Amino acid sequence: MIQFEKFTLENGLRVVVHPDESTPMAVVNVIYDVGARDENPAKTGFAHLFEHLMFGGSINIPEYDEPLQMAGGENNAFTTNDLTNYYCQLPAENIETAFWLESDRMLSLAFDNKSLEVQRKVVCEEFKEHYINKPYGDVGHKMRELAYTTHPYQWMTIGKELKHVEDATLQDVKDFFYKHYTPINAILVVAGNITVEEVKVLANKWFGPIPSGTKYNRQLPIEPPQTAPRSKEVKANVPLDALFKSWHIYSRLDKRYYVTDLITEILSGGGSSRLYQSLVKEKQLFSNIDCSHYGSSDAGLLVIEGKLVKGVAMKDAEEALNIELNKLQNEGISELELQKVKNKTESMMAFEDMSVMNRASSLAIYELLGDADLINKELERYHAVTRDELMKESRVIFNENNCNTLYYYAAS
Amino acid sequence: MIDRTSAPLIKDAIEFDLKLKPYQKMVLNNGVEVYAINAGEQELLQLEIVFYAGNSYEANKGVALATNFMLKNGTSTKTAFQINEHFEYYGAYCNRSCYNETAVLSLHTLNKHLNVLLPVMREIITDANFPESELDIFKQNSQQKLQVNLKKCDFVANRLIDAYLFGEDHPYGKYLSAENYQALSTDQLKAHFQQYYVNGRAVIFVAGKLPADLFEQLNQQFGDLTITKNGQSLTAQQLTPAVQKKQHISNDPNGVQAAIRIARPFPNRHHPDFMNVMVLNTLFGGFFGSRLMSNIREDKGYTYGIHSYVQNHIQESAWMISTEAGKEVSEATVTEVYKEMDLLRNTLIEEEELLLVRNYMIGSILGDLDGPFQIIGRWKNIILNDLDEKYFYDSIKVIKTISAEELKALAEKYLKPADFYELVVI
Question: Are A118 and B42 within 8 A, CB to CB?
Answer without folding.
Answer: no
